[in-house]
Amino acid sequence: MTKLFEPLRIKDITFRNRIAVSPMCQYSSVDGFPNEWHLVHLGSRAVGGAGLVIMEATAVSPDGRISLADSGIYYEDHVEPFARIARFLKQYGSCAGIQIAHAGRKASTNKPWDGNDQIDKDQGGWDTIAPSALAFGGKLEKIPKEMTLEDIARVQCDFVLAAKRALAAEFECLEIHFAHGYLAHEFYSPISNKRTDAYGGGFENRIRFLLETLAAVREVWPERLPLIARLSVQDWAEGGVTLEESIELIKRAKAAGLDMIDVSHGMITPGENIPWAPGMMIESAARIRREADIATTTSWFITHPKQAEETLQSSELDMVMLGRELLRDPYWPYHAARELGANASRDILPVQYARAVE
Ligand code: 536
Predict the structure, then answer these.
(1) pLDDT tens-digit readout, 264-310
(2) Active-site pick, 182, 188, 331, 334
(3) Could you report the per-residue pLDDT of 5-51, keeping only the tens digit for each?
(4) Which CATH number fits domain 3-357: 3.40.50.300, 1.10.3720.10, 3.40.50.2300, 3.20.20.70?
(5) Cβ(57) – ligand 1 distance below 6 Å
(6) 100 lines ligand 1 (CB under 6 A)
(7) 230-246 b/e with 16+ CB inside 10 Å = b?
(8) Other CB atoms within 10 A of residue 179 CB
């Protein structure tokens, strides 16, 4: 049996295989609400056979959106349209996951295909917040407001409320966004955090926001359901976070109730030098798996079935996350099962299709 198609159990959830759909921003919402686009986009990937489908970075508050078109889970009225999607994903055999996020100083931007630059207040943009009053740079010139302790408590409360709504929306896997230069990563990285209070300075202080938020979310996210964090484990810039620090943070996150780490990287400053390459995070992820002893997944240019299988076998990762390759081919899990000779191929497709194709 291939490892890719071996079911994975975390807590009370059994994923039918080890293929996850990475959370991918669609910039297709209005006022946070998911719609037909999200149902078809995510639903297709459940029909295609993924074990876990994670809804895109979904803002915990309106000002936590990257753009006006981000999805959000900050109203009670958001719950039902999300639930419709979660139910569909589960009906076709996938675990329904959602990523909750706050964009911090990288909020208030135009969609990528509309320039990706920051929007002024008079054009529908908004004031941004961050641990320190430092702009990201490049096209993101807006200087965020330095968060007060009240702001910190409020955002943490927003994460908790978002987790409660995700549960009400029948999601069964929750991922907290601690990566890609957004708010939590801005606390973690010395590049963006210049605070002199309990939330800035040394490692202990820079990880405080992340660990407190995680612990608060765990309180409301049931023990029986998996909780994941996507973490930028290294910054590709001088003075950024290091893999060694991240391993220590992940050990503590595990003690605070984290079930799986989703290994990502960087995007904290436009000045970084990213060594893009196939499977670029696999080695770091494998080291994290060994040293922090926690279920581990990663993404970034995992594209071929044999590469995915080999990643699970030799690096002992628990799951692979695919983003772009699953955009190219929603039936990647089905095609991978055929290519790897896994018996699962017929079981993957829903009965409506399986009766007609092998
Ligand atoms: C990184 N991005 C991550 C995002 C949204 C914007 C882009 C997120 O975490 N919400 C990325 C870079 C290149 C290709 C795909 C994703």
Answers:
(1) 999 999 989 999 999 999 999 999 999 999 999 999 999 999 999 99
(2) 182
(3) 999 999 999 999 999 999 999 999 999 999 999 999 999 999 999 99
(4) 3.20.20.70
(5) yes
(6) no
(7) bbbbbbbbeebbeeebb
(8) 25
